[in-house]
Amino acid sequence: MTQPIIKLEHISKSYGHGDGAVTVLQDLSLSIQQGEFTCIWGASGSGKSTLLNLMGLLDRPEQGRITIKNEAVLGLNDNRLADFRSRHLGFIFQSFNLVPVLSAQENTMLPLQIRGEADNTARRKARDLLAELGLERHLHKRPDEMSGGQRQRVAIARALIGDPDIVLADEPTANLDSANSDAIILLMQKLNQKRKVTFLFATHDTHLLSYAARSIQVRDGRIVDDRHNTYLREAS
Ligand SMILES: Nc1ncnc2c1ncn2[C@@H]1O[C@H](COP(=O)(O)OP(=O)(O)OP(=O)(O)O)[C@@H](O)[C@H]1O
After folding, report:
1. In this structure, are strands 37-41 and 198-203 parallel, antiparallel, or unpaired?
2. Separation of 54 CA from ligand 1 center, angstroms?
3. Domains of the chain (ranges plus CATH)?
4. How far apart are the CA of 10 and the centre of ligand 1, in A?
5. This prediction's pTM
6. How far, in Å, are 70, 86, 153 from residue 183 at the CA level?
7. Which residues partner with 214 through β-bridges?
8. Other Cβ atoms closer than 10 A to 226
9. Rounded to whole angstroms, how far apart are CA atoms 125 and 129?
10. ipTM computed for the complex
11. Distance between CA atoms of residues 216 and 200, nearest Å
């Protein structure tokens, strides 16, 4: 088997200090292969967001090793960590996290502008990607002029615009109705297959498990089940 794109080894994470400390993840180890489409699921409070935040380098564990793309990332200082994150990782959040005063196109091009890419190149790439996601008629709309499903598509475009190796999505469908939830997961699945981007999404919605090639169940900060899905639901 090839080297995993993400490797967590004996990770522990707690919040708070002293007597008030709560251990959320305990001695957790996990490997994700390049190109996998994985769902992390479990009840509210089981530790899914904490796990995703550690893999996304948004937080650090007290113990353990994290290796992403062969880099021992916990050894990086904050600047190099931020640089690694912007080059290799994309994020999608349940509340979309779009900038309210910017259009769909401007929201999408933001990560490229932060990287210093020329404005007209960033604008063109954002337009092409939004068109690929079916939003060609909404380029100039602000988030409050779009539906929840459309906003989440813009958020997906923003996560993908920088060509990340890995996209991490925390409850990406929590604010969507069930038809839009299915459509968003199918879109992520299609992008995973077409672009070979590694996708991980966290959910408490077991209905979405059938779309994931691999599902990992977390309970009380531990992995209690990890399986590959042989009857994958795909777009027809
Ligand atoms: N910043 C924090 N400070 C203190 N406790 C926290 C913090 N973040 C999370 N926790 C606690 O850690 C545990 C795991 O939380 P986490 O958000 O990872 O779970 P989750 O499975 O993603 O839940 P949800 O589906 O509700 O988002 C919970 O008991 C939560 O209360």
Report:
1. parallel
2. 13
3. 35-62+78-228 (3.40.50.300)
4. 19
5. 0.92
6. 33, 27, 10
7. 38, 228
8. 14
9. 6
10. 0.92
11. 10
Q: Per this entry, what is the length of the chain?
A: 236
Supply 61's token pair.
């564990």
What's at 128, amino acid-wise? Answer: D
DSSP secondary structure string, the chain?
-PPPSEEEEEEEEEES-GGG-EEEEEEEEEEE-TT-EEEEE-STTSSHHHHHHHHTTSS--SEEEEEETTEEGGGS-HHHHHHHHHHHEEEEETT----TTS-HHHHHHHHHHHTT--HHHHHHHHHHHHHHTT-GGGTT--GGGS-HHHHHHHHHHHHHTT--SEEEEESTTTTS-HHHHHHHHHHHHHHHHHH--EEEEEES-GGGGGG-SEEEEEETTEEEEEEE-SS-----
Query: Residue 110 corresponds to which tokens in the numbers above?
Result: 């933001």
> Which atom from ligand 1 is nearest to the alpha carbon of 16?
4
Q: Which residue has the tokens 């993908």?
A: 160
Give CA–CA dist 124/120, Å, rounded: 6
Binding site membership of 48 for ligand 1 (Cβ less than 6 Å): yes
24 lines ligand 1 (CB under 6 A): yes
Tell me the pLDDT of the chain (236 aa) as tens digits: 678 999 999 999 999 888 888 999 999 999 999 999 999 999 999 999 999 999 999 999 999 999 999 999 999 999 999 999 989 999 998 888 899 999 999 999 999 998 899 999 999 999 999 999 999 999 999 999 999 999 999 999 999 999 999 999 999 998 889 888 998 999 899 999 998 999 999 999 998 999 999 999 999 999 999 999 877 787 65
